[in-house]
Amino acid sequence: MPERIEESLQEIKSARTYADSILSSVPSGLIVLSNRLNILSINRAFGKLSERLPSLSPERFIEPLKEEITANLETGETLNREIRIVPQGSETARIFSATVSRIGSAAADYYEEEKACILVTINDITEHERMKELVLQAKQDWEDTFNTIPDMITIHDRDYNIVHANRAARETLGLPIHPGGGMTKCYRYYHGADAAPDNCPCSSCYKTGQPATVEFFEPHLNRYIEIRSIPRINSSNEMIGLIHITRDISLRKEIEEEHTRLLTAITKAKIEWEMTFDSVMEFIVIINKSLR
User: Fold this and answer.
1) CB within 8 A of 81, min separation 6: which ones?
2) CA nearest 215: which of 206, 224, 202?
3) Residue-wise DSSP of 105-174
4) Band (286; pLDDT cuts 50, 70, 90)
5) In which element (H, E) is residue 187 found?
6) Could you report the per-residue pLDDT of 83-98, keeping only the tens digit for each?
7) Is the pTM here over 0.70, yes or no?
């Protein structure tokens, strides 16, 4: 009998040592609570967190999780929650992901002998959340900039489908807010055609993999436009589509045409004046203020 007891104690000790080793190696902070909601133990990771931020005691985490802990004690359901705690001496909140889960298969009675019942897992996700906020802000800034550009900008896949468009393109072309589904062929909206026209820079860009630019009058839009197509390249250096930038150059064309008309009129007037000047029979000399 003593030998069996010794063997059983040894097995229990080995199992506890094994469990302690696992808990110590877990990178998440762990707090073990009893069925009476007393803190029984914490693991090494939580200890390191407390060393780094002394004001973050286990009680600072248990207090905001009381509702979840009570619910877990009653139902055994694993619950997750994000909590924010401002460490002492800091003005910035730290963000933690907390998980409340049951240890064992059945709920423990408060009046039973006190034993481990609930495991609270703590992960510091402050930097992760900050990075997520930065990414979301960068995305928002990009979209705001994208939508404030007056040029029509559309992003195409290899099949001439418009997969994204800025506000100017959506409003001018009458595009849906969320292009896609194979029903937004670029040539239908830009040219009112069933296929890409011969002078389409997209076709040239797809064939050569090089940027292409063209200017022409587009009857479908009733305006002069400049279209610039730029290849979209993925991380494998493969062309997956293009960026299509369309600028309304109607005003510029009007100015250029007016300039051409004025230049023609001035040239004609100059020739006529010279012909008249040379045909006069009198001697005519034009002098400056210095009598030269």
Assistant:
1) 64, 65, 68, 97, 98, 100
2) 224
3) SSPPPTTSPP-EEEEEEEEE-HHHHHHHHHHHHHHHHHHHHHHH-SSEEEEEETTSBEEEE-HHHHHHHT
4) confident
5) helix 186-191
6) 999 888 888 889 999 9
7) no
Q: Is the dihedral of CA 231, 233, 238, 241 positive or negative?
A: negative
CA–CA separation, 126 and 119 (whole Å):
22
- Residue 219 has which token pair? 């009857």
Q: Strand order of the sheet with strand 79-85?
A: 39-42, 29-34, 116-124, 94-102, 79-85
Q: Which two tokens stand for residue 45?
A: 């990771």
At 241, the amino acid letter reads G
Question: DSSP class of residue 222?
Answer: T
How far, in Å, are 162, 186, 189 from residue 183 at the CA level? Answer: 9, 9, 10
Residue pair 161/180 in contact by the 8 Å Cβ criterion: yes
Helix (H) or strand (E) holding 12: helix 2-25
Domains of the chain, start order: 2-125 (3.30.450.20), 149-251 (3.30.450.20)
Which of 57, 55, 54, 62 has its CA nearest to residue 37?
A: 62
Identify the bridge partners of residue 224 per DSSP, sorted by sequence position: 217
Q: Are 117 and 103 in contact (CB under 8 A)?
A: yes
Q: Which string of b and e fits 225-238 if b means at least 16 CB within 10 Å?
A: bbbbbebbeeeeee
What SS3 state is found at 87? coil
Residue 256 and residue 231: Cα distance in Å, rounded?
30
d(CA 37, CA 69): 8
Look at the chain and count its residues. Answer: 292
The alpha carbon of 142 is separated from its chain's Cα centroid by a whole number of angstroms, namely: 8
Q: Is the pLDDT score of 116 beyond 90?
A: no
DSSP letter, residue 64: G
